[in-house]
Amino acid sequence: MTTSPHSDVTTEGIRIHAAAEFLPQENLPPEFLAADGGRGARFVFRYKITMTNVGTRAARLLTRHWIIVNGEGRRDDVKGRGVVGEFPKLSPNESYSYVSFCPLDTNWGTMEGSYVFERDDGARFPVTIGRFFLVPTAPPLQLESPSR
User: What tens digit of pLDDT does each residue of 86-121 get?
Assistant: First the structure.
């Protein structure tokens, strides 16, 4: 049986697929070197999230909450509005993908968390982002352009 470092979870009709890959030291994005805050991030992972509405009602993403745990067990919570500056609205059968980065001071870790979505009638609900692994041995991501 093969174990995948990725995750794929569906909550309230919203499917979240998450995958990450290690970026070698020479590929560190300059904004992460400058914004590290002195934590010594030496390992940077790029991750891709694909959210798909497999349900029957439209929903818009409002907020995110990431739980990032490094290889020594230190937890960081990251909360914010939207994703990569956007608030995607998904009608039934629509998908939206984005790519972002996670710097760590250990060579492996995990990410998981949740989004809050809102239906057209104003009802809000949490959507689980299943735990996925930030490991140097993860297979490379397929990085087509972010889309709706």
Answer: 999 999 999 999 999 998 888 899 999 999 999 999
Q: Is 145 inside any structural domain?
A: no
Q: Is residue 144 part of a domain?
A: no
Residue pair 19/111 in contact by the 8 Å Cβ criterion = no
Comparing CA positions, the residue from 100, 125, 128 lying closest to residue 15 is 128
| Domains contained in the chain, number | 1
H helix and E strand count, the chain:
1, 9
Model confidence, pTM: 0.85
CATH number at residue 25: 2.60.40.1470
What's the helix, strand, coil split of the chain in %, to 5?
5, 55, 40
Cα–Cα dist 45/88, whole Å? 23
* Whether the Cβ atoms of residue 99 and residue 76 lie closer than 8 Å to each other: no
Q: Is residue 143 part of a domain?
A: no
Range of the domain at 44: 7-134
